[in-house]
Amino acid sequence: MKVLVPVKRVIDYNVKARVKPDQSGVDLANVKMSMNPFDEIAVEEAVRLKEKGAATEVVAVSIGVQQAQETLRTALAMGADRAILVQTDQDLEPLAVAKALKAVIGEESPDLVIAGKQAIDGDNNAVGQMLAALLEWPQATFASAIEVAGGKAKVTREVDGGLQTLELDLPAVVTADLRLNEPRYASLPNIMKAKKKPLDVKDLASLGIDAAPRLKVVKVTEPPKRGGGVKVETAADLVMKLKNEAGVL
Amino acid sequence: MAVLVIADHDNATLKEDTAKTVTAAQKLSNEVDVLVAGQGCKAVAEAAGKIAGVRKVLLAESAELGQGLAEAFEALVVPLMANYDAVLTPATSQGKNFSPRIAAKLDVAQISDVIEIADSGTFVRPIYAGNALETVQSSDAKKVLTVRPTAFKAAGEGGSAAVETIAAPGAPAKTHFVDQKLVKSERPELTAAKIVVSGGRAMGSAEEFQRVIEPLADKLGAAVGASRAAVDAGYAPNDYQVGQTGKVVAPELYVAIGISGAIQHLAGMKDSKTIVAINKDPDAPIFQVADYGLVADYKTAVPELMSELAKVGK
């Protein structure tokens, strides 16, 4: 069974995004970039499926700038077998990303796609679902457990108020939520080994998809700031203020 | 032209998120219809008809819609979009599950988590965990939006829209429902609660989280929330998570205990009316948004708070 994992290069989780003064976007110059955290969870899950013997090959795919090769090397160091970069300098919307992935999937024919549920830059939470719809494949979003056997994936999903379990006929698309696993750190020997693993680069144009943006970004602004309030000394003060001043008790 | 709102409900009751999404929809059109899709949810459809300004309620029922299968929602909604210019869904875990499928099938962008509608084609949404707001203009003929309910006031009652039953699509062939385990809670729902008490990584264990946070929440009649760090560490279930990648809440009172206030968390609660923070680190970022900050170890502060609340009759 082949597992395909899309990964995105995004601003590092620990870096605070800053809006550019001209409101054209978020300043990414000289900012640390890393793999989207939910994609790390997806890679980890795919590698674990391989370690358990449920998967035979893990292919990481990124759609983005040349530097996304570094992100793919991280996936390879975590245990992916090979990588594909669909290179473009264009900042693609989720629909275009889903179309590009569909084209790659047409060539690769994986049995399972595991994607992160959301990228922490655009925060759209859309690519996995769009890809499933375009492929007409079954989907299970927000996975907290995945079992694969007999041409089916049994996926436990995080839903409001509890957990839902679905069984999907493969091929299928699953998106990873926070509690699916805890991703490993790549060891130095594995980082060295990853440098020798195959990484194919192809141009976005070669896929022949419509990647034109549907949205025009008018401006990117800072959110309104909420001013801090006062410090109280004791729990008794706090209760008095909540009761008499804020009127919320 | 008309717009469609997809109702948020649990087959028994209509969630307030629906009325909030109707308010957002009314910024696009005066012709707002509500789709109630589920199973055994006639009462929900009747409740939706009472929302002020709703023109018509569409009711579709099947087992798969009741189970919330994304494939079933897509199959139901995409053909309906011949009659609508836009479809708006509350950005709940259910809405996020199916709405992008509808956008993909219509070959349009989804505009996720909309917090403001400037005009019929211009929308504002948070990006980068709420560190920035993006204003986008859509050139698509049909708009697919998920709406952040806390950003809109609920439409009032007083409507009397008729309920029209429509056919449900057949069962999805390749997705099979196995089961659903919902935790029954006496507490109010997190996104609808007037008061929320949240715990963070400082709790140190699931037992401590339950020992400290839950009694305080129950004393206040509050819902329980958690920071991503607490969820990540396994101290609290995933659906307690307040933040950009979890739930967005805006209660009257938000009490953050042992939460440092990562931007990711602040994005999920900073629209609360009154924010209280209890943290032993005086430099914790949570104090920058808190109306009332108490610099103290929760281990002593929470028991004191409990007894002070008892004195005022809580």
Tell me the total number of β-strands of chain A.
Answer: 13
The average pLDDT score of chain A comes to: 96
Q: Which sheet architecture does the biggest sheet of chain B show?
A: 7 strands, parallel
Order of helices and strands of chain B: EHEHEHHEHEEEEEEEEHEHEHEEH
Q: Helical stretch count of chain B?
A: 9
Class of secondary structure makeup of chain A: alpha/beta
Fraction of residues in β-strands of chain B: 25-35%
| Helix coverage percent of chain B | 25-40%
Question: Would you write up a description of this structure?
Answer:
- The complex is a heterodimer of chains A (249) and B (314).
- Chain A is an alpha/beta fold and 249 residues long.
- Chain A is 28% helix and 31% strand.
- Chain A is built from 6 helices and 13 strands.
- Chain A has helices at residues 37-51, 68-78, 94-108, 127-135, 188-194, 235-246, and strands spanning 2-6, 9-11, 33-35, 57-64, 82-87, 112-116, 139-149, 152-159, 162-169, 172-176, 199-203, 215-221, 230-232.
- In chain A, strands 9-8-7-10-6-1-4-5-11 form a 9-stranded mixed sheet, with helices on both faces. A two-stranded antiparallel sheet of chain A has the order 2-3.
- Chain A starts with a strand and ends with a helix.
- Chain B has 314 residues and is of the alpha/beta class.
- Chain B contains 9 helices and 16 strands.
- Chain B has helices at residues 16-26, 42-49, 63-66, 70-80, 93-106, 206-220, 228-232, 263-266, 298-311; strands at 3-6, 32-38, 54-61, 86-90, 110-114, 116-119, 122-127, 132-138, 143-147, 162-165, 175-182, 195-199, 223-226, 253-257, 274-279, 292-295.
- A 7-stranded parallel sheet of chain B has the order 5-9-4-1-2-3-10, with helices on both faces. In chain B, strands 13-12-14-15-16 form a 5-stranded parallel sheet.
- In chain B, helix 4 crosses helix 5.
- The termini of chain B are far apart.
- The interface between A and B is large, with 80 and 94 residues.
